[in-house]
Amino acid sequence: MDFELGEAQRELRELARAWVDKEVVPHAAAWDRAEAVDTAIVGKLGDMGFLGIEIPEEYGGSGGTPLDYCLLLEELGRGDSSVRGIVSVSLGLVSKSIKTYGTEAQKRQWLPRLCAGRALGCFGLTEPGTGSDAGSLTTKAVADGEDWLLSGTKVFITNGTWAEVAIIFARTGGPGPKGVTAFLVPTDAPGFTRTAIKGKLGLRGQATAELVLDQIRVPDANRLGELGQGFKIAMAALDKGRMGVAAGCVGVARGCLEESVKYAGQREQFGKPIASYQLVQELLADIAVDVEAARLLTWRVADLVAKGKPFGTEASVAKLFASEAAVKAANNAIQVFGGYGYIDEYPVAKYLRDARVLTLYEGTSQIQKLLIGRALTGVNAFN
Ligand code: FAD
Prior knowledge:
Layout: H1 7-23, H2 28-34, H3 40-47, H4 66-79, H5 81-101, H6 104-116, E1 121-124, E2 140-144, E3 147-158, E4 165-171, E5 180-186, E6 192-196, E7 208-219, E8 223-224, H7 230-266, E9 268-269, E10 272-273, H8 278-306, H9 312-337, H10 348-356, H11 365-377
Parallel strand pairs: 1-4
Antiparallel strand pairs: 2-3, 3-7, 4-5, 5-8, 6-7, 9-10
Helix pairs in contact: 1-4, 4-5, 4-7, 5-6, 5-7, 7-8, 7-9, 8-9, 9-10, 9-11
The chain binds flavin-adenine dinucleotide.
Domain Acyl-CoA oxidase/dehydrogenase middle: 122-215
Cofactor: FAD
Keywords: FAD, Flavoprotein, Oxidoreductase
């Protein structure tokens, strides 16, 4: 195995790192306090080509590999998980699903604008009554001539109030996953209501919303993929999405490490920098080991994806480990900072609040364990 990055990848990483230091890091605390990132960041992400990685150039994308995507998401995760999440959802879940399952017309309609950051996408799977058990969702799509009428409620939808297009998963058939179909729904359609969810523990800069669909009429041309294929589309998006979330977690943990090493070198107690004490070094070493392990697990997934090999279980392993590692790293970082870690003058408190959700969305840690357990035993322990 070759663990060295190629020249193009090193360049992308340096470009992303410098861009995040200039455009994200100086604003992250203010966006967190204001509970909104400056939406101009979306156009800037598009201008850099960051919203088009892995999307072919003929659709306005910037090409590249799954590893390129991971490198970008690590840098964004270090800067601000709210910004990382905008990309994870609009590019990772929406554009990539359109690339894989969309018709030529759907690709031409949405991908150039999504890649340029002139439009955002959101991914409407979770409902108030169905989170982990997404296959039981109740949003309905009823055929009406050549059209569909969609009704239901989606909750916790990232980019929800900003997005111009939503992938909505709705029931077109019987109960269970096989009765679910995906639709591309413009968010300005009559009957579409979006309400911001405020007061989040972390990811406060991100627009998280409840979506209510009241008899929204969409033509059959807006159906994404085949009838009854919706749950498969959602799960395929989330499998790959977990790789991106894991990369974002590596960024959080790395940010914690860099901040902690810097602080430990400057802060003096008992007449010496706290970096000179073994118990402080233990905190730093634990974070460093987790960063390395989480990154290697994530890059392993990227390698499998690039080679077209199965990667679902490996993505669960990476997401589970990296998200728990990010929470631990942020907790350790606060310990290194002492009382200063508890206030938002330094970034580590925000790292902990942002990291917490990483063990919840795109499948909770328990759900990842059930997926890994099913792969190990062949037994489904979900229900
Ligand atoms: P539940 O499913 O009710 O789980 C509650 C607890 O029960 C958890 O600990 C869970 O692990 C456990 N549990 C459930 N079933 C089992 C089982 N079989 N065995 C053992 N334990 C179990 N969703 C979207 O569709 N699109 C988005 O863009 C999106 N963005 C989000 C952004 C944020 C900030 C948040 C908080 C959530 C977002 N979500 C999104 C929703 C997210 O994916 C769900 O919150 C998550 O899947 C968990 O569902 P739930 O909250 O309903 O919890």
